[in-house]
Specification:
Shape: globular
Distance between the termini: 27 Å
Strand order of the largest sheet: 1-2
CATH architecture: 3-Layer(aba) Sandwich
Largest sheet: 2 strands, parallel
Number of strands: 2
CATH topology: Rossmann fold
CATH superfamily: NAD(P)-binding Rossmann-like Domain
Number of domains: 1
Oligomer: single chain
Mean pLDDT: 82
């Protein structure tokens, strides 16, 4: 899955095999973006890799990832 604010990067991700892409709105709250991701996937991902360094993106990654209880 690829999330981005740039449509060209999303299109490139599709070309190289991304199963899902989602255009993220920077004005939306991270929990709303996380909800959209979960709806698109049908579940919460086990692993989330955040590479942009954008605070809202990092928050979204935390909210969407499954919690692990030990």
């Amino acid at each position: 899955m690829r999330l981005d604010v740039n449509a060209d990067r999303l299109e490139f991700a599709k070309q190289i095999g991304a199963d899902y892409t989602l255009a993220v709105e920077l004005t939306r709250e991270p929990r709303s973006n996380a909800s959209d991701i979960e709806s698109l996937l049908g579940c919460q991902p086990d692993v989330t890799i955040e590479c942009s360094g954008v605070e809202r993106s990092l928050q979204t990654a935390v909210y969407v990832s499954q919690s692990c209880t030990v």
